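Researcher: Last one for today. Full complex below.
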Amino acid sequence: MDELIGALRAALPAEAVLTDPDVTASYAHDMASFCEAGRPAVVVLPRTVEHVQHIMRTATAHRVPVVPQGARTGLSGAANASDDCIVLSLVKMDRILEIDPVERIAVVEPGVVNAVLSRAVAEQGLYYPPDPSSWEQCTIGGNIGTASGGLCCVKYGVTAEYVLGLDVVLADGRLLTTGRRTAKGVAGYDLTRLFVGSEGSLGVVVKAVLALKPAPPQQLVLAAEFPSTAAACEAVREIMGRGHAPSLLELMDRTSLQAVNAMAHMGLPESTAALLLAAFDTPDPAPDLAAVAELCTAAGATEVVPADSPAESELLLQARRLTLPALEALKAATMIDDVCVPRSRLAAMLDGTAAIAEKYGLTIGVCAHVGDGNTHPVVCFDPADEDEARRARESFDEIMALGLSLGGTITGEHGVGVLKREWLARELGPVAMEVQRGIKAVLDPLGILNPGKVL
Amino acid sequence: MDELIGALRAALPAEAVLTDPDVTASYAHDMASFCEAGRPAVVVLPRTVEHVQHIMRTATAHRVPVVPQGARTGLSGAANASDDCIVLSLVKMDRILEIDPVERIAVVEPGVVNAVLSRAVAEQGLYYPPDPSSWEQCTIGGNIGTASGGLCCVKYGVTAEYVLGLDVVLADGRLLTTGRRTAKGVAGYDLTRLFVGSEGSLGVVVKAVLALKPAPPQQLVLAAEFPSTAAACEAVREIMGRGHAPSLLELMDRTSLQAVNAMAHMGLPESTAALLLAAFDTPDPAPDLAAVAELCTAAGATEVVPADSPAESELLLQARRLTLPALEALKAATMIDDVCVPRSRLAAMLDGTAAIAEKYGLTIGVCAHVGDGNTHPVVCFDPADEDEARRARESFDEIMALGLSLGGTITGEHGVGVLKREWLARELGPVAMEVQRGIKAVLDPLGILNPGKVL
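Model: Here's the assembly. Have a good evening.
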């Protein structure tokens, strides 16, 4: 251990190497509270690419596992420490290196916070769409590691679609550059996308070239109340099936609405079974909003209220963004599912989730990016209550099984991490698992990069 | 040889195995006429996934190279036969299996022709954007193999962005399913994108789940004449830098304009140095078209003509699409560069290309997807004239070197194939090459899949 720390210190500044167990313990896990996490041997906070290369060379020489971390807002335990590992926190590499409106790219270090980048590009009339709920805390490096999504995805897609090129420090310390700075490019195999969503298990991202879009007009949100989640899902089918392109399309169930009201007294309609939020950010959203209002009414909405202004719209979005914290406040702990199903199976997914909640006697609130078919059932439980904790884990798993049976995936945007690791093979099957393991072995032959995650 | 053919016939219908040398010779190469091509031992035309699996198992057992082919409209020799190989033509697997407006996906076999799919989805109000110039002939499988682009990319991106999931027969005949049918999904490493653009060197795509968009309004095109390519490129900088989102932004240089007039008598302005075409497909394109007209005039345009109707717009697009055939008609052969540079380096790229044409005493016409920085200098030459052929190859290479020196890539959308193979390492560097070779070895340990292509 001392030898390892001595070797790390040989080329890192003193303040970049943390060994106090009280301090290093605080780096042990991300926001998936229910996942196993080990005790790091040391936490390193590099500021340069050369620092990261030194760390990886040292880790390779000492055969020590390395767990890359961003802001640790992840929801699958992908950033959780393993015992005696080096936690490699990228938060000090937080410079925006370039924003170029003509090329429509930003070049950033991995520790840049999503909201910081989003605001910086907005100042130049540009837009970086990916907007995970944790956007005020989470880092671009973490977003790349988990291929994270957000509310924007139904129109703008996920993080992966905005990563043009990467600098990656490999397990042995070599520096790999992937992709490009140009709008297009197909030279060789697409290594960039291989790293996106790989949860730090293939290499350490130290720089990213990101695609930007022109800033759209501010969106206007419509809120519709439904007597059942199934009716709301029928509206979603119609909205998407008729070619509308909402900038967001979100659902909150009754449990979520009540939780948000309890936390923030927002006066959301608690009697409704499902609130649907649809927004458009086109120059003239009125025709789309009117058409969507009609489709909601036809699907059984009891109340349809278009927001009159961007400010009113923002209030509705705040309610939506509060859902996770509000559900988390209901009980001591939560496990958040991330099942994405075909849009036409959403009703079955939500009805099935309600049945699972009833079967296990648990509170499971659901918010969902319904435009994408991506549901987040939030299982609320008390880990001190052993029986409830067991039921929570079982219901969490049963929700994934339901998603798979409906032709869906166990993870739409949160990643596999530790939480869903044993489920990955069920989704991918043996051939894909073997290929994935083969690729992992090419990039990390010693298995030191975030072991126990993804595969 | 007889043994191989016997083994193939054991599980393939008689008409699916072609051995007549006059017939198999016609499958020897794609449209990159100047690339080496071998003589196939046999051409197979499977109709089912099981056929493809049988072919790959047989190829593995006999250690025989397999060259997958679509419509052979590629421009880099990626589909060229190697000596004694099995040519695996996917053109008979040409069924559209599913078009779903709610999920916004199409599920297709690889031999479906791009235009056939585009028209089929249009009938349901949907849009499959990727539109290579060869869209009336080229297949979706070929598009996936080369990650091809087209005119739409400046707004809608390339083929890669529309591939959600794949079924791939691996070198040893196993069937791998990658990706998903859902709008989002991040379970495991992104194998889908690894196969897109891999030119059949990692596996044989036998099914694809493609993302669709709602059909946009028909686009309106504006044409602007410039006294120099540099002035046109300055307009491009301004158009893109100010946040416009054209549905296409194309340039034709004087050589291209003259060639199209010579072929089709379209009355294009031959005195102009560069014609810029910009289009918008929004519900109300007028404000964007007016703003772009102003930017063109400010950049020095001598004439700016917005098309009055979709029909007039279509005529301008026809002229643009005729550029390659028209330039090909100038001389016995052409070599088509595919250099993509940052938008702000376009003027330098085009001036440099003109200087190279002069230096080598050659006709090099340029059409370009300038909105993406993707230029297609077309080197026209007579292969029977040994000296001219040498100068053609040298100028072709010098254009790639220029692109790299300007921070660009050797291929924006046509792929590496045989034509640019020795250039790939120059662009990627040794670390990326090593990683790429490692991945190739995982998926094709015997090296039988399209050997000599890409890497």
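Chain A has a mean pLDDT of 96. The two ends of chain A are 27 Å apart (CA to CA).
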